[in-house]
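seq:
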Amino acid sequence: MGWNTLDDMDLNGKRVLVRVDINVPMEDGRVTDDTRIQRIVPTLKDILKAGGKPILLAHFGRPKGKHVPEMSLRPLVEPIAAAIEAPVMFCADCRGDAARAAVGALPEGSVLLFENTRFQPGEEKNDAELAEEFAELGDVYCNDAFSAAHRAHASTEGVAQLLPSCAGRLMEAELSALESALGDPERPVVAVVGGAKVSTKLDLLSNLIEKVDVLVIGGGMANTFLAASGIDVGKSLCEHDLADTAREIAAKAVQTGCELLLPRDAVVAREFAENAPSETVKTEDVPDDAMILDAGPDSVSHILQVFERAKTVIWNGPLGAFEIAPFDAATNAAAKAAADLTRAGKLITVAGGGDTVAALNKAGAAEDFTYISTAGGAFLEWMEGKTLPGVAALKA
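struct:
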């Protein structure tokens, strides 16, 4: 592990600046899903237990450097206090005299929440002066927001360069899970990549082909690969202009010894609607007036056979139009199989991405996966092999 954790730091009596992601959904000033708040609880409790004073840096929404009242973090004081079972103070600024006074007045055993860092124009510009002002407010910096680690902002990268820095428990878990999936995984490694378009995942596919043993391609992006191989996909979602790119990726898979798994059969329909009349056909027999909306049972059977041989599965994106029945069948079946193997101790499963999390939750498989990342863009960029500024800044 190339970064410090809370266990490597002396926190007793220290002011600990903690970058967290509490960008939670709100409705009428109330939190509607507190998952992100719950996920920072272990870090905050461990800092308090070690005698440190947690001071929270966080953003909310996209105020673009302006003070937007409806994007204030003030409504999160009570939910955070309830989650960590400790008092939470609030400061209506994150720099200047008010911030310094709030830090100075923070009692032991309490947490301080600063106002939205993105109210500051210098936050997203990684302004050196703002980073220095943050650093003056703490003795130790702890980043527990992997979801913001792909951004070089003053509160994620700038301040980390100025203080002894470490990863929080959530960041530590995220990095450990990703390291076990792509850094030094148990083989064979299978990657499941789905979603609508190849164009959004070119870097991902290119990186995975060099690191995994089997690459399962599903969703709308599989149609582009099928079409590139000469198969008529009817009216299916397909990026025909990326046929050459798809062929290049397929050729690279051959060179690297990565098995590329495309659908063998498909569930097709004439309209994209809940319970639309559908039929299952071989991929080479897709009717001209139909569109592929899910992988068929033969394709699923082949994926399950691959899972049975695998030791590690990385998952990003659904295998079909999982939002509506019956086109959620392939995703549900594959997800449940992966979950069963994980629960039996036969498989390490790491998944991430908005659609992925929603699909695994819908399938009832999420709880049994080894690790599910809610980091979105940061998870994707890590899988693409890119350096994340917020992680690089924590290197021990």
